[in-house]
Amino acid sequence: MSESTYYWQVEASVHGGRGYAPATLEEYTAIAKALDDEASGYDALSASWGDAALQLQSHRTSAPMCATLTAGDPSAVTPGHTTLSYTTLGARCTEHAAACRRLSIELSDTASLLIRAHSLYSEAELAVRRTFTELIQAGTQWKPGHALIGTAAVALGGLISGWVIEGKPNASWMSTSTYGLQEGVMSGIGSMVGGIAIGEGMKHTDEVNAGAGKIANVSGPVKDILQGNHLDVKEVYARTEVVRSSGSVGDAMENLRRLAEERLGKINLDSGLEYGTVAVQRYERTDGTNAWLVTIPGTDGKADSPFGWEQNVELMSDDRERRMRADSVRMVTEAMQQAGIGKDEPVALIGHSQGGIVAATIASDWADDYSIEHVVTAGSPVANHPIPEKTWVTSVEIDDELVAALDGASNPDSDHWLTVRGHVSPAPAATPGTINDDGSCAPGTTPIYGRNAYAAAPVAGGGTDGREISHWIKYHQAAYSNATDLGSPALQRHEQHFQQTIAGELKETRYFQGRMAKSDATPSLERQRIPSPTAAPDTSGSRLEVP
Q: Which residue among 69, 98, 232, 457 is the one 20 to 30 A from 482 at the CA level?
């Protein structure tokens, strides 16, 4: 069987980050309801016109021997008699039915776009989601074996359905089929590990973090023995520009993708940068003061990297000191110190996966040392991190990527915390160009994503040979692009705040690389507090020229 090429699109919905008063919300809700009501009315008209066409056809076929109907000229059979063509009448009725149906779809789509853009039912959706998650959590605690078997059965069903669609097994479909269960199962497992009783979960949402804290008490010291706890952070130099100037969240996400994929070798920008590397940028404002943007890619899984798999558990802990001791947090704060970020200078952080958890941890636990104004996360489970209200958070998540669901909870729904949630679906195929018989050309068209240009955004990077894991940054970029196209006031507020945080001219981009090692001189686990960034940074021996 020949392999097919699949193209993907992401449909986004916006939750939280409200930018208008409750009265305005009610007005938008009323408009959406009116559009839906009109859509239902046109749908009913479409059905009526369709019924009329069927009735005409029925009347015509009920009199097959009627001379007047069969004659080409009815007046020749019955002088002075005229009639209309049943075929013509039926065709006109069918046309009216189709036109009414199109209007119904357009009105319904407009209502849907309005609902998504303005988060009209966000609170109700989150309440339903929370209730469902708590039920799955309780079931997982009560009958863990049954819950795991049920989840495995759903995953197997997804694998089989994907096999039928693609003609080959593809594990990505397992995550797609189970995404509705993931938060509940994870919080149930977290409750069991953390010792939280059934029913107690309704009081809080941090069951996974409690469980991670218990695990980290064991995994942390074991990691220190195997990997070492001596962290060496050095400045490195790129041969080519990787992280460029950012003027928006979209720009920053593209730079995040470039750095993440370059250091893992998924793209080749010939920069010389390797794994365990973050970027710190200084923007100079018109008044001469500085603003900063720190770009933090995700897990790279290298044996001596501070961004290994093991550090994720510590980052997810409910223990503040344990989170601060995570190697990836230590590395980024050390890089920020070496870069010279002042205590009162505004900082924006953007991170993917583990990088987003690091950003949330710094915003939560280093609020007294840095002025973290804005955090952007992509595919990061950060719902339970105690980020202060002064810090704005823009989170982008894909519903079936699993990683974002590892915290077992939905993100807070508040004015300063906005979540863009994306849903991946196959994109329509492009229409090829043609040459007509008279020599004229009919150009091809690019795919129209959904029934209108705002319904979804394409995933960049070309086609794939099947469904892939939606945790790649390109999917989060598509989700944010679609949310931007929707014109959400809440997203516009967050975008404006991000731009204001880093407003200025980019003056320098510095890259810092971290490596873990064993050392007899390594301080004990009790030490870990990096010196205050207000102190003069010690950069001796911190520079490494990338060959």
A: 98
Distance CA 339, CA 341 (A): 6
- Does residue 60 sit within a domain? yes
Distance CA 327, CA 335 (A): 12
Answer whether residue 107 is part of any domain.
Answer: yes
Residue 30 domain-assigned?
A: yes
Of residues 417, 218, 410, the one with CA closest to residue 314:
218
Determine, yes or no, domain membership for 393: no
- At 183, list the tokens: 């938060």
Hey, is 301 helix, strand or coil? coil
Domain count, the chain: 1
What pLDDT is attached to residue 213? 92
Contact 162, 173 (CB under 8 A): yes
Question: Rounded to the nearest 5°, which phi and psi values hold at 293?
Answer: -130, 125
322 SS3 class: helix
Helix, strand, coil in percent for the chain, rounding step 5: 45, 15, 35
Query: Is pLDDT larger for residue 543 or for residue 461?
Result: 461
343 three-class SS: coil
CA atoms within 13 A on the CB side of 183: 25
3-state secondary structure of 376: strand
SS3 string of 405-473?
A: HCCCCCCCCECCEEEEEEEEEECCCCECCEECCCCCEECCECCCCCCCCCCCEECCCCCECCCCCCCCH
Run of H or E including 349: strand 346-352
pLDDT in tens, 80-133: 666 667 778 888 899 999 999 999 988 988 888 888 777 777 777 888 888 888
Helix axis angle, 172-194 to 122-142, nearest 10°: 70
- In 202-326, where does DSSP find H-type helix? 207-227, 249-263, 311-315, 320-324
Lowest mean pLDDT among 96-105, 379-388, 452-461: 452-461
Domain that holds residue 96: 19-74+83-118
How does DSSP classify residue 204? -
Residue with tokens 């003069």: 536
Look at residues 285, 326, 257 and name the one whose alpha carbon lies nearest to residue 480.
257
Q: Which two tokens stand for residue 540?
A: 């001796």
Query: For 352, phi and psi rounded to 5 degrees?
Result: -110, 135
Residue with tokens 């990787």: 242
What is the number of other CB atoms lying within 10 angstroms of the CB of residue 529? 12
196-219, pLDDT tens digit by residue?
A: 887 776 667 889 999 999 999 999
Q: Give the count of beta carbons closer than 10 Å to the beta carbon of residue 130.
A: 17
On whether the CB atoms of residues 429 and 453 are closer than 8 A, the answer is no
pLDDT category, 543, cuts 50, 70, 90?
very low
What is the pTM (predicted TM-score) of this model?
0.83
Q: Is 498 exposed, middle or buried (0-12, 13-18, 19+ CB in 10 A)?
A: buried
Distance CA 371, CA 391 (A): 9
Q: How far is CA 215 from CA 311, 316, 357, 446, in A?
A: 11, 10, 17, 50
Q: What is the pLDDT of residue 204?
A: 75
